[in-house]
């Protein structure tokens, strides 16, 4: 659900929060079986740095080196009841798609599109129509279907021999953590909140135990599983701890997860996609039923994201036999002051 910048939004649901998981399942594949073959220069990834689901696509695109094959459009951190919008661009219009509302790309393909306009989305630049917004599948396809356009030294984020374990970890991380923070924040009564809170911190304790003796979630290199957990952890203290009442502990008070998150943040491709200013603006301004004043907090302190984490002692290599990605493109860098990097 979205909300107008000039209207009070409604995100809290009666009882337990239930996410709409019906996405556009069309895929962009090497064989083009859905009518959309992988082609360099044909598609535009539309994301928002504020959104954890979209942040995944920004990280994976960076790690795999797909920048020259897949262009990037960035929406602003807030949206109205109709759509995410391209506020950061001159005239608030995406320079490639020529639209202000991402909604227009959805309606171009589905004139009566009945659901919320979400990021990330991949748009066909030839037609200006959305192809998919299935965020979980998008990053997996970046790793598999877009292999022809991976940079030399790209990591194997979804290796075949680890896929069953990655999928298993991802299922629990999604239900209990990625979506768990939202079940806390959007709970409509005390019982629903209490149940969500208990499930969330049970899962965080399980992750702490798992990561106490291994550097990464699955195997000894970064995988898709680490990307998916990171985008929630990096938002935990700035947003979820206070705004969503996930306040048993701060991330900084969970030694294993805090060290793990800093390790990833300091890895090229992770922290350089994170815009803490936009993250806070999104949650505290858009969710007016939770924060009616729309006051955005100044904290927390960010410099501690760059402190030593000590995770190297556990072994493992972030990119396996590969190499780190080069620095972000100039036009895609997070603005100074929005990140400690």
Automatic annotation (TrEMBL):
The record marks 240, 283 as: Lowers pKa of active site Cys. Residues 159-283 form the GST C-terminal domain. It comes from the Bacteria. Keywords: Transferase. One of its GO terms (molecular function) is glutathione transferase activity. PROSITE patterns: GST_CTER. One of its GO terms (cellular component) is cytoplasm. CDD domains: GST_C_Omega_like. The keyword RNA-binding does not apply. Glutathione binds at residue 84. InterPro entries: Glutathione-S-Trfase_C-like, Glutathione-S-Trfase_C_sf, Glutathione_S-Trfase, GST_Omega-like_C, GST_Omega/GSH. The active site is at 51 (nucleophile), 182 (proton donor/acceptor). Residues 313-341 are annotated as: Disordered. PANTHER family: GLUTATHIONE S-TRANSFERASE OMEGA-LIKE 1-RELATED (PTHR32419:SF6), GLUTATHIONYL-HYDROQUINONE REDUCTASE (PTHR32419). This is Glutathione S-transferase family protein. It comes from Nocardia yunnanensis.
């Amino acid at each position: 659900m979205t909300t107008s910048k000039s209207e009070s939004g409604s995100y809290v649901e009666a009882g337990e929060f239930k996410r709409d998981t019906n996405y556009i399942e069309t895929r962009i594949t090497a064989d083009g079986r859905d009518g959309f073959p992988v082609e360099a220069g044909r598609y535009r990834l539309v994301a928002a740095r504020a959104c954890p689901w979209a942040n995944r696509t920004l990280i994976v695109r960076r790690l795999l080196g797909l920048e020259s094959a897949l262009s990037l459009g960035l929406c602003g951190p807030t949206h109205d009841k109709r759509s995410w919008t391209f506020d950061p661009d001159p005239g608030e219009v995406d320079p490639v798609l020529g639209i202000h509302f991402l909604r227009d790309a959805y309606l171009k393909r589905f004139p009566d599109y009945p659901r919320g306009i979400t990021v990330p989305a991949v748009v066909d630049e030839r037609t200006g129509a959305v192809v998919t917004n299935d965020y979980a599948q998008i990053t997996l396809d970046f790793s598999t279907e877009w292999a022809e356009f991976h940079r030399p030294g790209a990591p194997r984020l979804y290796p075949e021999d680890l896929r069953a374990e990655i999928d298993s970890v991802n299922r629990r991380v999604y239900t209990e953590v990625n979506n768990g923070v939202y079940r806390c924040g959007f709970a409509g009564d005390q019982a629903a909140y209490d149940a969500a809170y208990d499930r969330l911190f049970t899962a965080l304790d399980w992750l702490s135990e798992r990561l106490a003796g291994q550097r990464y979630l699955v195997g000894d290199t970064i995988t898709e599983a680490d990307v998916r957990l990171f985008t929630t952890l990096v938002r935990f203290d700035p947003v979820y701890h206070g705004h969503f009442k996930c306040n048993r502990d701060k991330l900084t008070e969970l030694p294993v997860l805090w060290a793990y998150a800093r390790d990833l943040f300091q890895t090229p491709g992770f922290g350089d996609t994170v815009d803490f200013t936009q993250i806070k603006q999104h949650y505290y301004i858009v969710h007016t039923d939770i924060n009616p004043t729309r006051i955005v907090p100044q904290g927390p302190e960010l410099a501690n994201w760059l402190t030593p984490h000590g995770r190297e002692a556990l072994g493992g290599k972030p990119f396996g036999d590969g190499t780190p990605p080069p620095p972000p493109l100039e036009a895609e860098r997070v603005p100074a002051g929005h990140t400690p990097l």
